[in-house]
Every structure is written in C-alpha cells, then in structure tokens.
Give the backbone structure.
Amino acid sequence: MTPRPPRPGRSDRLRPLNLPQPAEVELDGQGRPTAVNSIQPPNGGTAEQREKGYGQERRAVESILEIWRVDDEWWRQPISRWYAEVVLEGGMHVTLYEDLMTGDWYIQRP
Amino acid sequence: MVGKRTARDGKGPPITYRPLPPAISPFHLGRDSGEVGTTELSSEHAVCLWISLFAIRCEVQRQPELHGQEVALLSNDDTRRIWETSPQARRAGVRPGMSVSQAVGLCPQIKLREPDPVYYDEQFSNLILALGDVSPVIEPAELGRVFIGVDGLEGLHGSPEEQVNAVAAAVKGGHMTVAGNKHPYHSLPSFTTMDRPVWSSWEGIRLGWARGRFVAGVAATKAKRGAVTIVPDTERAGFLASQPVEVLPIDLDTSRRLRQLGITTLGALVRLPAVALVSQFGKEGHHLWLLASGETVDPVVGHETPEPIVAAIDFPTPVTDRAMLLHALDRLIERALRHPKRSGWRVLQVGVHGRQEHGTSWKVHVNLKCPSADRNHIAAPLKTRLEQAPPTTAVENLAVEFTAFVRGTDELQLFARDAASSARAGRRRALRAAVREIKNRFRYCSLCQVVEVHPQSRLPERRYALIDYDP
C-alpha cells in the first residue's frame, strides 16, 4: 500500500475552539430567553450531547444562571453582546448571546 | 551447590568484628546520574528482599478482621478491576486484572477494598529506611521488592549468611548482632519500638543473595516463605540453567515465543548461540542471553542521600508580625523544595531556625508523618508549632532546613500523588506511542491539544484553542 502523503500546510497553529453556533431563541416580554430552537452542534455532536438535547428542535430554558453584557474592541471591530448562561430542559448547560450589532443569536458551551 | 537456610534462625557463632582495611573502599562510586548532587553507589553482590503481596499484607495488618479472608484490592486507576488478591482469594480463582464482576462471580464472599497507596508507600519507605542501617546501597525495584548492595559488608556483617541475617534482622526490627554487641534497632529515626512498622511482624519474607541484581532477584523468588536462597559465585551458571525462562525480564509475548521455540529454561536458552537470539529478538535477545548465561553482572545502584538543604532569609528590619513570618516560611519552603539536590527525594524531617534580637534564637523541628514534597504539607506542622511556641522577640533571620529525605516518586510508584503522576506519565507514554503509530501509518497525525489562550476572556470562544499535538 502506498502511504498517504503528508497533508500540506499542517504546521503548528492555533485553531479556534468552542466557536459560537447560530441558534433561534424565543424570548419573553422582558427579552429573556425562554426556549432555543434548532440547536445544531458542529458535526452533529457527541452521543451525550444528543442525549442532552443537541439536535433537538426545541428546548425550553429551565433556568437562567447569569446574564451579562460585553461591549469591547470599539477601536477595531466593535463587539456588543448580551449573554445569558442558561440550563435547558434536559439539563444541558449552554451560553446564549445576542449579537447586538446584528440582532442574531448564538449558542456555545460555557 | 545452592545453600538454603531460614532467615529467622539467625543462629551461629558470634561474629568477630573486622575493620575494613583503609585502602579498600567498600562500595564502588558509580556513574554520576547527571542530577546535581546525587552520586550513585553501586554494588555487584546483592541481597534481594521480596515481600510478596505487600499491599494486601498492609491492609490485613491494618484491618485484622480481614485475616484469613478472601480479600482483593481494587486497581488505583480503574476501580472496576482487581489489582492484588489475598492467597485465599487466589485459591478461589480470583486473579489480578480480573473485573470486579468476574471476581464476585467466582468468589461471592470476597471482600473488596479500595487501595490506600499512601499507606503502602509509607510502609515501604520505612522499610527502605530500615535497610539503610545495613547498607548504603539500596535500590527499590517495586512495592515489596528491594535490592541491597552488600559489596564490602563482609567486614561488618560477615559471610553471605550473616549478611542476609543482618537484612532479616533489620526487617524484623529486632536486634542486630555486630561485634558481639546488641544494637537496639529503634535508633532509626523512622520509628521507635513503641511504633513498630507493620512489616516487622510479617512472616514469609523471602531473601536471595547472589552476585548481580538479576540472579539475586531470581534467588529470592526461589526461596520458600521466610527462607533465604544463597547462590555462591561459582554456582551462578548452574543455578540459572535450571530456571524457567519466565524469570527473565520479558513480556508475555516474548515468553510465549520462547516456549513455542521449545526454549523453556535458561539453560536451553544459553545453549543457543547468542547471534540466533539476536536475530529473533534483536538487542533484547542479546541482553537476555547475557542474563541467562550469568555473563553479565547488573549491579545494585543506590543513591547517596542528599546533604541537608537550607534556605534562609535576612529581614531588613526585625519582624514580629506573625503573618509575615508565616509568609516567609512558605517562601523558604518553596525555595528549598526547588533546590536541585531535592529532586527525586521527599522530605522526612524539616527544621526552622530563627535568629532573634539580642542574640537569642528560636527553633522548631518536625518529623513528617508522611514524607512529602508538597509545600503545604510540609508547612502545616511547622505553622502549628509556630502558633504554639512563637518566637519570643523580633526575628532577624529565618532559615528552613530539610534534614532527612526518602526516595521520591521515580522509584516508588505507588505513592498516591505519585501514583496519579505516574498514571499521567503512563498515559503520556501511551499517547506518544499512539502518535508514533499513527504517524508511521499515515505519515501525519491529526491529534490536537487544547491550549489556554485567554482563559479569563469574557468571550468564551477566545479562552481555549486547538494546536497540533506532536510530542
């Protein structure tokens, strides 16, 4: 068998981890998340993630642990985010944030 | 002829003390290990002390209700597996490495216990300290097996029989007969006669005396419980020839291959030309041939105990503040622990000295119950003593001194913290081997390592990143 040639360009370099994924979030009257739709982790997620709720159509927010806002890097690409660390139905622990510049919601691990 | 006698009898005529001629150095100053301040001592003639089932014995001694019962200790790394079993459990068919469910299936009345490696290691460290009274060349091999270099000890202890008796006496914690006098064993710093080590009352300790570490080890395994096997130099080849190939330091695969080739004893192995073994097993084959033929003598290699390590500080102005003294104590312990001579050793005794105003002084000395290389562990008893008996006036100078040590983790791998670190080291080794295999097969390795980038970042995606893993 001919050995596979080495992959080009695989030098030591940092690759991002825990990148936020787009999500649809339902809000209550005060703008707080009540449910998350279409949670799709990269590559479908692990079996444990699927069991806990990743890949499900809709998961209600059971509790909100913490809320904070980040306004940063105004000198280059401004970042303005409204974060909520929540526990979803089934026990999944995630961080949701709204990009206040675009109005889009994202989900990622805490 | 292979001489055998019991280790317990200790009988025989009184030994006449013969001082060593000054021109003869009893031990070879061996190669330097490369570590600062750790010169190795080596000895060709060795006594192997083997206490089988050391951990189980420790447990039974601590929990007498387990005596005579089917007992098994769980593995430290995987609590679903059996690590060590008592002879009764072994008779019921329970073997190390079995799963717990298998063991319970074979022996429903089996008593399973979580291992306590700290305790076992502490006992083994005490044993090594006790043996230090017989010879300065001590090389622990594994829990319960230790080699003692005896080159040059004939002047002190006498014949090989008397040398092994001295070792047995040290283990039993009794009295050693030297020059016709009785020397109380409790002069050792590790324990007193009121606090005898658990192994001092154990029966079934095996001892082997021979030239070379390997032969001494084989001799100990061939000794009956509580007995000694002495292999005179002239009988080494004959003794080895009758031993099964399993006594060689080989893995199961190599052992199986040798058996498939019809080689069951070391004698059969030696009858083959060395080149044939090299062609079958490579470099290891040559080493095995040398061991089996007795042509190589692997010495016992001990390490010289480091000199006391001192770290001191002069205060610019005399200090009375307790908090500042405690802080300085922490820093000094940290500094002393970082000393290169401390590498590979755990601290057993530590002292703190303070020079006070008006020329007075203050001193605290502590024997650690459990040897340690951990700052907090060492500092805790000192801080208690500092609270109980603080300096009477302001302190101008503070010094921390480590005065006694026991071997560290590289040789005693069952110390709990060490067990965790050796497990980590084992995992790293396994990972490196796996990476090598993947690279050999695919020419590249797609394993990645998680590294901290900005762990405190408010943006979760910036805290960690992946980087190619290439050990």
